[in-house]
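## tool: complex_structure
## caller: assistant
## args:
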Amino acid sequence: MSSVFGNCIKVSIFGQSHSESIGVVIDGLRAGFKPDIDKINAFMKRRAPGQNAVSTPRSEADEAHIISGLADGVTCGAPLCAIINNTNTRSKDYSKLKEVPRPAHSDFPAFVKHSGFNDIRGGGHFSARLTAPLCFAGALCMQLLEKENIYIGAHISSIKDVHDSDFDMVSVSKAELEKLKNAPVPLLNQEAWPLMEQTILSAKAEGDSVGGIIECACTGLKPGVGEPMFDGIENRIAQAIFAVPAIKGIEFGRGFESAKLFGSENNDPFYFDGGEVKTKTNNHGGILGGLSSGMPIVFRAAFKPTPSIAKEQDSVNLLSKHDEKLKIEGRHDPCVVLRAVPCVEAATALAVYDLLLENV
Amino acid sequence: MSSVFGNCIKVSIFGQSHSESIGVVIDGLRAGFKPDIDKINAFMKRRAPGQNAVSTPRSEADEAHIISGLADGVTCGAPLCAIINNTNTRSKDYSKLKEVPRPAHSDFPAFVKHSGFNDIRGGGHFSARLTAPLCFAGALCMQLLEKENIYIGAHISSIKDVHDSDFDMVSVSKAELEKLKNAPVPLLNQEAWPLMEQTILSAKAEGDSVGGIIECACTGLKPGVGEPMFDGIENRIAQAIFAVPAIKGIEFGRGFESAKLFGSENNDPFYFDGGEVKTKTNNHGGILGGLSSGMPIVFRAAFKPTPSIAKEQDSVNLLSKHDEKLKIEGRHDPCVVLRAVPCVEAATALAVYDLLLENV
Amino acid sequence: MSSVFGNCIKVSIFGQSHSESIGVVIDGLRAGFKPDIDKINAFMKRRAPGQNAVSTPRSEADEAHIISGLADGVTCGAPLCAIINNTNTRSKDYSKLKEVPRPAHSDFPAFVKHSGFNDIRGGGHFSARLTAPLCFAGALCMQLLEKENIYIGAHISSIKDVHDSDFDMVSVSKAELEKLKNAPVPLLNQEAWPLMEQTILSAKAEGDSVGGIIECACTGLKPGVGEPMFDGIENRIAQAIFAVPAIKGIEFGRGFESAKLFGSENNDPFYFDGGEVKTKTNNHGGILGGLSSGMPIVFRAAFKPTPSIAKEQDSVNLLSKHDEKLKIEGRHDPCVVLRAVPCVEAATALAVYDLLLENV
Amino acid sequence: MSSVFGNCIKVSIFGQSHSESIGVVIDGLRAGFKPDIDKINAFMKRRAPGQNAVSTPRSEADEAHIISGLADGVTCGAPLCAIINNTNTRSKDYSKLKEVPRPAHSDFPAFVKHSGFNDIRGGGHFSARLTAPLCFAGALCMQLLEKENIYIGAHISSIKDVHDSDFDMVSVSKAELEKLKNAPVPLLNQEAWPLMEQTILSAKAEGDSVGGIIECACTGLKPGVGEPMFDGIENRIAQAIFAVPAIKGIEFGRGFESAKLFGSENNDPFYFDGGEVKTKTNNHGGILGGLSSGMPIVFRAAFKPTPSIAKEQDSVNLLSKHDEKLKIEGRHDPCVVLRAVPCVEAATALAVYDLLLENV
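## result:
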């Protein structure tokens, strides 16, 4: 199995980069909820390509079309299916890749796993295009979470070595997350963007690419949500997040830095704040023992630079079994981080909403 | 749900720190395998407390007793259950903790989640003691993996700011991993230990604790194992690994560092090595698109410092609803990293073995 | 959850009787299989309405359209999604049913479960129309099973009190099952049909309906497939079969009759038939301890009479909370048994194929 | 997988007839529930062997011992594990069965499935002894259901051709079910017992065995519990029930008989009974579209005669590959139906409780 997520909801994502359509089935949605379709489309537009100079010129409307699950626009308890048609595919670009796999892509192991029957066009099911239905599902779950006053938002923490400031993990708020979503670029400090953009464009000019880090927060989750051991919040968010292509690391709260602290520095002291238990610091990132502590959940995910670059690379020919040079044609993002921000939010929303249902 | 892991095997871990027993049921084991019990016990001993100056003096044999699943010492297709009795429990140490939660522990959210019925003694089901059955299950899976020539091994990458050297991600081998298991301390450079030990003991002397990083490798996995999206190797290892208490981050291959590289630096070029496709570098940590590439799988996990420290800390009284100072009594590891090495290996083994079965 | 089936494949069925489309996602299909689309459509046509005097005049092409999962017509390892558009819906027929539930239908409990937000049009997700994607998925699995020489076929055992003869459970063969599929009506004795048809039509003339029994066989399954306890062949076939609306009972082998036999009568003696272990009789219906014995799997499923009848019935008004007479308008099958034959085969195919993968 | 049941709880049953212990882990129990252990033991005693002339003389206390999951006798949110030691095993009785499988037992397919490594002693994991932990889990779930005013009870509907009367499916009540549990024999009419007993004992005297039918009811379930398609109440009860050895059929409500009725006879008319919607008849057995209707759930399960009989039988020698006569030694029930009554209740309780949690 692979593309099914969730214990209480079942989110089943299907499609390939160049199949007729891609989409998602969400089973387990409660009846009586009227999704705000405009809001979903606005969310998905943040992920869609072709919107600015730093992303791939492949331009698709990426509007999800709901073909089941609603009656009069309201969830009726039936599984909801949304599809997105693939309209702007140029399959011929990919014809040679089956033989000569792109470095840092799934091409080679997918070829082996599927005995050469993998759909190489655009990376097939491994394509980042599959984050479109992920975003649809996430956008829907976010609306359901927002009804419970739970908000999820993310920003670009860094692109290569250009940094935004980071969340104050103690005080990050719904208002701050909403502001991020309406900002021109998802940054706490908009003034970081010009340098980030320049970093991306200069890499692009060189036929190269760059990566970065996204920081995500979730506010409003009451204490005690989650499960011990394998189904803790960290486990489940991590399981969901690594579905977003190019992510190579995740850390919660103080993360890798906490490995360098004394316990007396890293432990977050409790105190009562008007009847509610809070912690003075939030090195634990809102999660203790797999459960929510009531403090904001904060984590960071590291994205490798886009593997598709224009520079010539060393590869192999899987059929002739010789080394071969590869020059990738086609349209590619020199940096996926900007478009990945809603994907990270969406994957987080799936995990958090599923855990919330499990803890009703 | 919570303490059940796996698609093809179902590993169900049970018990609390101070319940009569803890243990594990493993369903889905193929018949005809004769586990090497001595080797399992040797593996578990690496995790057991009371073995040296840097770990808790709680001393328990921690021998797992198999009560089902074997016939004449050989798996018979029935679920295998192993139990470990809790013999050396001092429940009185924990009597006050239900009211006054320990900072950085699960006590507070567990209290809320379970409406005050959580088992506070030793942390209950959230205790690191539950890694004993995890290690049992992992040791068994490692033996099954070794039959397929797949080896898993880990070492301490750092304790606080004292570093071991790291794996050469391209060349790390079965021989190197086996050597690690027989080393006095799981370090690539044994000479790093005195300074690590001193760091731990001096923290202990201050009533404090330290964290660290563990690096883990898995060799011998053929290309093409894994699944796209939610069940990729990263997703599944991450889901398993966060079951080990105190882990706050995980990164695969070059991890967070890759966010700072150009694509042309981070992409690992392919080449043919005597009929096998390999990569010249291994920044991808053996995983592309969720699938194994055939290169060693390498990841690092960050452990926060042990939350239980002797120093007085700020907490709250959940019943009287006032702030309250807390001084933790009892026996605690000033650093869990050393004992956590087999736990990381075990969790990895569960994830890899389950994925391997899924890809038969 | 609800509409997801399988451990090794995940079959996720979506749609409502009057939603834009219905369909199915099948995750976990191996790459490299070229489905015979014509054969699938021919299979689905057996289920489609409007084909003869005894079924509903609602006429729909019911052609499934595959929108993902294939590359060049061959499975590529990506989840396969097929949709069927709902073209011939007359939603106005159902407008009053939300208030006044139809006896023996899901209307009333669905109204309660979904707080009145259930899609009442045509029964929504509870409609027998959802057996169309079930048949698609089953037809695909049957092709995969046939590659392993495993055949599934069913016939009408009875309609009301008119009986076909039953399978010889010892000797039922692939040839016999194939003959059934090409027969005008799925009967072992075609001469039973006129009386069956007359029974149906005379009930229809009275504004009434009738039920019946379907007998299904699966040949070619090697011994030892299945699992003990909750995932035995009986458990899994039963779980799948009750997804077909109107089924109220299932029995394997000699079934309810075996409750009246002596052990010495019911036990099936073993013997060697040219190196293969067989049983002289097959009262066990090919399943022992949840596992296949190598003998044909045979079971019978009982269908209640179609709940939608033209006769006036006693019901209630859920809004005004008074008893109310109901006269159902619209188009309905006076007997679902004929069209249910492929549905039973399809549900069986899902269960058997999933278990087969689990026992590779 | 095999021996794990449930979506919201995970019930994992382990053990073999002659392993050191058998038992069960139940994950997902809510904290704060104090199980009545005496009541559980009393329930399990109804299943235990050696209690009367019609059951096997194997005599075991069958007391379940809880080794985790409670704190101060109350569930604490941790998985609950209970074990039952196998004390009275006579493994030598079974030494020859691996070669010469018992007709109508799992011996032959288990030998094939597990390549001869199956535990043949007492049937291993396929033994009816595994219904002891099933009963433990079921007894616990029944207590949880009873807190919601949901009651489950069963009676012997028939043994061979001797019949008890059946439930009035419309009016069967909690009081009636409780009375059954305290009756000397689970019969609605105690006077049916002498003839049943005589039927069993006379079969026993002949070295033979008999089967029968158990009827089970569940009262107090509110309308709307359950799921469409694969997770309906029928699907889930059937999946659970077939875990009880020797069951070959299940029917809900009017079951197979409904296949012979007109729709106008079988449809259950609705009416208002003091604000509650009820049906005048209950041919649907309390389930419509997979959901509870609020009427009592009623089903019947058919048990084949005990396969272990003293009479000589035809079998084969799997090693020498010749036909061979078999005479089964050891202790066996001439009829399992009496002891199976609590097993049917227990399996039903697992399914109903799990669905109830899913529908909170």
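## assistant note: Residues 4-358 of chain C form a domain with the Chorismate synthase, AroC fold fold (CATH 3.60.150.10). Chain C has a mean pLDDT of 93. Handing back to user.
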